[in-house]
Design brief:
The complex is a heterodimer of chains A (100) and B (973).
Chain A lengths: L2 E4 L3 E4 L3 E6 L11 H9 L7 E8 L4 E8 L4 E6 L16 H4 L1
Antiparallel strand pairs in A: 1-2, 3-4, 4-5, 5-6
Chain B lengths: L15 E10 L2 E7 L3 H7 L6 E2 L6 E2 L12 E4 L2 E5 L10 E2 L15 H4 L8 H5 L6 H12 L15 E12 L3 H12 L4 E4 L18 H17 L3 E4 L2 E3 L7 E6 L2 E12 L3 E3 L12 E3 H11 L6 E6 L2 H12 L3 E7 L8 H8 L4 E3 L1 E8 L6 E11 L2 E10 L2 E5 L2 E3 L2 H5 L4 E4 L4 E4 L6 E3 L9 H18 L35 E3 L4 E2 H9 L5 H8 L12 H12 L3 H4 L13 H5 L12 H6 L2 E6 L2 E7 L5 H14 L2 E4 L4 E6 L3 H8 L12 E7 L5 E11 L2 E6 L4 H15 L4 E4 L4 E7 L3 H8 L15 E6 L2 E6 L8 E7 L3 H12 L5 E2 L2 H10 L34 H10 L3 E8 L13 E4 L2 E12 L4 E9 L8 E5 L5 E6 L15
Parallel strand pairs in B: 1-7, 8-9, 8-13, 9-10, 13-26, 15-22, 16-17, 16-22, 17-18, 31-41
Antiparallel strand pairs in B: 1-2, 3-4, 5-6, 11-12, 12-13, 14-23, 19-20, 20-21, 24-25, 27-28, 29-30, 31-37, 32-35, 32-36, 33-34, 34-35, 37-40, 38-39, 39-40, 42-45, 42-47, 43-44, 43-46, 44-45, 46-47
Helix pairs in contact in B: 5-6, 5-11, 7-8, 8-9, 12-14, 18-23, 21-22
Classes of the chains: A mainly beta (100), B alpha+beta (973).
């Protein structure tokens, strides 16, 4: 069983973690094209190479990001999400006709 | 029977001759000593046949004495497929043969051996696949013929458990290399675990004959064993098998009834090597064994392996075997050396000095069966004329033992698990390990090092490196030995002598001969992995330990590719057999009990599982189930009931952005929700699918107490944290499910009950309206009280600290007694909620249900800029939904034909949906339910068909829910 280095809890058995999918940029949720939105919701890139993934340490429900090489299953680095998501995210008011 | 083949001490290192043990084999009483295995005790009594082979039912005996082959599989009363050569005897043990018809000595199925010529490789695939279904008829017959042991289905469930282990350095293998590594690592202060498969430490030092004098080997072993035992930081597990080498040095190992899961900073693989067999006619008969097996019998178990031996060898170790046999009183008829000229070695000189007969450039070409084929009567020996070919003229030598010493193969399994490739050193005619991964070190003969001094040096080097990797250093690096020191001339390049009359076995487990492999390759299965699957070579219990090397050689010669390219089939865990009991362990089934659990039991509740929780299904005897549920429902509708809802999920959401956060997570609006009010929450996922629901109670401007479903709360909590990891809102979420106990008290008299024990909250309809939340004391216990329409009656949900749950329950029961309060269970709750048309997430919704399909658009605040799932819901709404969740009433009143959940909804015979919840409502006198139907079936008043189990069609009318009290007057009283 692999060891995953949680930025909060240190190295722990992989069985304590949940894979949370690839880190993806959310398209504009108020107006994006349905096809682009479906791509965001349902599809994963599934690349052979170094990918950025969400992982959750289940006993503490702590989410973090891991950089993993899918060819070797080696986790190169883990870090707190604040490194990528440093600022508060706000969503714009939709155009009036959409809320009607 | 006396122990006719027993040798006197010092032979028999493992024996305790002060402790005789008698057991039974195939009905006969057998005597042995403590320390004997089943096979060694049988051999001591001159019993040579242990089993019958898998396919041809040929007699089989000891091959390795190391638990590495299928020849020794026997049946114990409660356990099939026991390795007789490593399983210890115990008083009264009942051992029987398996896979025989009649007796082991006279197996009636051995007739199959005579017709074997008509059973070529792949016979089953070709013979039994037509006509369609034929295999189903033949399979039981063939399985019965080619069986292994029998599983006793009513066997006693023994005690098995699991343990974790941690080490700086884990050394696998307790032979000279492993001992040297463990000592070297142990001296640095590292925490070391040393695992040895055999019953005792020392590996080959305990039985093999090296270049060194036997007395020197003996004292070396004693010295190493006492040194490793003197190190308090080295934990020794003998009789233990490492089963796999997984990522980051995660190693499961089994010792007796315990499965350990070890994590090591560094691993030393000192797994040694496996002696290889010579391929010749009848090389499988009892009496033909590895030279190392004969040595194990003598040195470890004090058993004389035969009276007169022929040794077929191609290295000096075979000469060592000849010396050991001679010293044990076995007459050596001849030493048959495949080589023309033996390389110089003290053991060769010693054999020559003993004037034993040596036949150079010869091989054993056939073992001559004894009468009744229960052993051998002699060996036919002939001159080798070319690679794999021998002269027609053979000499017959009388013997009852043939020892094979023609080479070794590294025990590469664990290294292969870790990703190491197995290559082939042409010069040495030997498999060799490719580079091992970081954190793993190979040492000793698995690493191709055979010279004893070099093996020790290799072990010290590996132990030092492994300790260093774990962060411990002590002294300078020990010098590394020459690569492959002592490996020259051990392996004969072609110890394969096919016989015109066959029975020249490559794989003993599966009864595979040279011609079987040739036939499989001729049919096109010439890749090693295909060859394995078609011929089954290497698929038996020995997992290719003996068959991999000759198979690779034969495949290489046939295909013209180098052996290194042919390679070996993928080695997968486990290394050795493991029982389901080891994997199952103690079989824990943890349950969560609410604070009021014991009160439910006292009240006669029948408990049911809800996730990990136990909840009361109903209160009363099992044979009065329906009456109990009906009475509970009636008491809620007409009087007052109480239900334990502690299993409901609870979340505290606090902070300046608490309301903003809920607006994004849930579909409804919460910013303007007044303090002291509750609001329904509905969660959709990013795809717009309903994920969970509950209630949000606003306790303060920046504080919400949110409930979630019992099974959904953990996922809700994780999702909340995941989203906020990206949004960075100023909010804190805490899971408090286990911190609170909860009850729901419901019914027209609930206010009256509560008013008796609540002093600090205004319970009047205006002071505490429907969907209000108050903090106060119930029976003196601090509580959060929410007025929600849980079952469609006037009712209150009361949450208190879990430690006070039982006291709350008692206080409410006491206060309600004059009014006839009674507890109700999950069954009554479901019925009550169904009458109100309340959906249960994941019962009435599935993995695709959107709020629009479920008729819950009312719970969506469309004007919000964002909530999870909003965009998907908009896109789906534009595309149009294809089904609707509707309430229905069954036509024709209530009789015994009640449809069930998942019965199909039809439109003119075509499936359009299914029932999700259904039940007979005694209050309404009707069968009501919820169902998914097609859009054009969804209008209230329209009718649809339901197909029930027996194919009968029932009619239902779409009816607006709630079915009961449609104007919701009762819950708002």
């Amino acid at each position: 069983m692999k060891i995953i280095n949680c930025p909060l809890n240190g190295p722990r058995n992989a069985s304590e973690f949940l894979w949370g999918g690839e880190v993806k940029e959310m398209p504009d949720p108020t107006a994006s094209d349905p096809a682009a939105w479906a791509d965001y919701v349902f599809l994963q890139e599934n690349e052979a190479g170094i990918v950025r993934e969400w992982w959750c340490h289940l006993p503490t429900a702590f989410w973090f990001i891991a950089e993993r090489d899918t060819r070797t299953d080696e986790i190169l680095r883990t870090h707190r999400p604040s490194e990528l998501f440093g600022k508060r995210r706000d969503f714009a008011q939709p155009k009036p006709e959409e809320g009607a | 029977m006396t122990q006719v083949m027993r040798l006197s001490a010092p032979a028999g290192l493992l024996l305790d001759r002060t402790k005789p043990i008698s057991f039974r084999f195939a009905g006969e009483k057998v005597e042995g000593f403590a320390g004997d295995t089943i096979a060694s005790a049988l051999a001591a009594n001159g019993i040579s046949v242990l089993s019958r082979s898998f396919k041809y039912h040929r007699p089989r005996g000891i091959l390795t004495m190391a638990g590495q082959d299928a020849n020794s599989l026997v049946q114990l009363p409660d356990e099939p497929n026991v390795l007789a050569d490593i399983h210890p005897i115990s008083p009264g043990l009942e051992v029987t043969a398996q896979n025989v018809k009649g007796s082991l000595a006279h197996d009636r199925r051995s007739v199959i051996d005579l017709i074997g010529g008509f059973l070529p490789v792949g016979f089953y695939y070709k013979a039994f696949f037509r006509p369609l279904g034929a295999w189903r008829r033949w399979e039981p017959v063939i399985r019965n013929l080619a069986g292994l042991g029998r599983v006793k289905l009513d066997a006693h469930h023994g005690y098995y458990d699991k343990a974790y282990a941690f080490a700086d350095v884990l050394v696998i293998g307790g032979g000279p290399a492993g001992l040297a590594a463990a000592i070297e690592a142990g001296k640095t202060g590292a925490e070391v675990i040393l695992i040895e498969e055999g019953a005792t430490l020392g590996g080959s030092l305990a039985y093999a004959r090296f270049v060194e004098e036997p007395s020197a080997t003996r004292s070396l072993r004693e010295h190493l064993v006492s040194e490793v035992a003197s190190l308090p930081n080295v934990t020794i597990h003998a009789g233990t098998r490492a089963q796999g080498l997984f990522a980051d040095n995660w190693v499961p190992f089994i010792r007796a009834n315990r499965l350990y899961k070890a994590r090591a900073k560094s691993v030393v693989l000192a797994t040694g090597s496996t002696e290889q067999h010579l391929v010749f006619r009848n090389n499988d008969l009892p009496g033909v064994m590895m030279g190392s097996a004969a040595q194990r019998l003598i040195k470890l178990y004090g058993v004389k392996p035969g009276e007169r031996a022929v040794i077929a060898t191609a290295n000096a170790d075979g000469y060592g075997v000849a010396l050991d046999l001679t010293e044990a009183g076995v007459e050596v008829a001849a030493l048959v050396d495949l080589r023309e000229i033996p390389a110089p070695d003290p053991r060769v000189e010693s054999v020559q000095a003993h004037r034993l007969r040596i036949l150079s450039g010869h091989t054993v070409v056939e073992a001559i069966p004894a009468r009744g084929k229960r052993g051998i009567a002699g060996a036919a020996v002939a001159r080798i004329t070319a690679e794999g070919i021998f002269a027609a003229k053979a000499e017959a030598l009388d013997c009852d033992l043939i020892c094979m010493d023609v080479g070794y193969s590294p025990a590469y399994q664990l290294a292969a698990h870790a990703g190491t490739k197995v290559g082939y050193a042409e010069r040495l005619a030997m498999f060799q390990l490719g580079p091992v991964p970081k954190g793993v070190h190979a040492a000793g003969s698995v690493n191709g090092v055979y010279d004893l001094e070099a093996v020790l040096a290799d072990g010290r080097r590996a132990g030092w490196k492994a300790a260093g990797e774990a962060g411990l250093f002590c002294g300078p690096e020990p010098s590394a030995p020459e690569p492959f020191a002592g490996a020259d001339g051990l392996n004969h390049p072609w110890p394969i002598f096919p016989h015109p009359r066959g029975r020249d076995f490559v794989d003993f487990d599966e009864d595979l001969q040279v011609k079987d492999l040739l036939a499989a390759m001729a049919e096109g299965f010439d890749h090693i992995e295909l060859l394995k699957r078609y011929s089954t070579v290497g698929m038996g219990p020995s997992q290719g330990r003996h068959s991999a090397l000759p198979t690779a050689r034969i495949a290489a010669r046939t295909t013209g590719h180098p052996i290194g390219e042919i390679g070996v089939t993928t080695a997968r865990p486990p290394v050795g057999p493991e029982k389901f009991a080891h994997l199952a362990g103690r079989g824990f089934e943890p349950v969560r009990l609410t604070a009021m659990h014991h009160r439910h039991i006292e009240a006669g509740a029948q408990m049911m599982p809800a996730g990990l929780w136990l909840r009361p299904a109903y209160y009363g005897a099992k044979d009065k189930r329906e009456e109990a549920i009906t009475a509970e429902v009636r008491n809620v509708r007409e009087n007052v009931g109480i239900i334990d809802v502690s299993t409901l999920g609870g979340l505290e959401v606090r902070g300046p952005d608490a309301a903003e956060f809920l607006e994004r997570i849930y579909t409804f609006a919460y910013k303007k929700q007044p303090i002291g009010r509750c609001r329904y929450v509905l969660m959709t996922d990013m795809a717009g699918v309903i994920a969970d629901d509950g209630v949000a109670a606003r306790l303060a401007e920046q504080h919400f107490y949110v409930t979630a479903t019992t099974s959904g709360v953990q996922g809700v909590y994780q999702n909340m944290l995941w989203y906020n990891a990206q949004w960075r809102l100023a909010v804190d979420v805490t899971q408090v499910t286990a911190s609170y106990a909860g009850v729901n008290i419901a019914g027209p008299h609930s206010r009256s009950v509560l008013s008796r024990i609540v002093s600090d909250a205004d319970l009047s309809p205006t002071g505490f309206p429907y969907m209000g939340v108050r903090e106060g004391h119930v029976g003196g216990i601090p509580a959060r009280i929410m007025r929600v329409g849980f079952v469609g009656e006037l009712g209150y949900e009361i949450h208190v600290p879990a430690s006070q749950g039982e006291a709350l329950w008692d206080a409410l029961m006491e206060a309600g007694r004059p009014l006839g309060i009674r507890p109700f269970g999950v069954e009554a709750q479901r019925q009550l909620r169904l009458e109100k048309g309340h959906i249960i997430v994941s019962q009435d919704t599935d993995g695709l249900t959107t709020p629009e399909e479920a008729g819950m658009e009312w719970a969506i605040a469309k004007a919000k800029p964002f909530f999870v799932g909003k965009r998907s819901i908009e896109i789906q709404r534009a595309a149009g939904v294809k089904r609707k969740l509707v309430g229905f009433v069954l036509e024709g009143g209530a009789d015994d034909r009640i449809p069930k959940e998942c019965h199909l909804v039809l439109r003119e015979g075509e499936i359009t949906g299914r029932i999700t919840s259904v039940g007979l409502s005694p209050v309404l006198g009707k069968v009501v339910g919820l169902a998914f139907v097609a859009i054009d079936q969804a209008e209230p008043g329209s009718r649809f068909d339901i197909k029930i189990e027996n194919g009968e069609i029932l009619r239902a009318i779409v009816t607006k829910s709630p079915f009961y009290d449609p104007e919701n007057k009762r819950q708002e009283m």
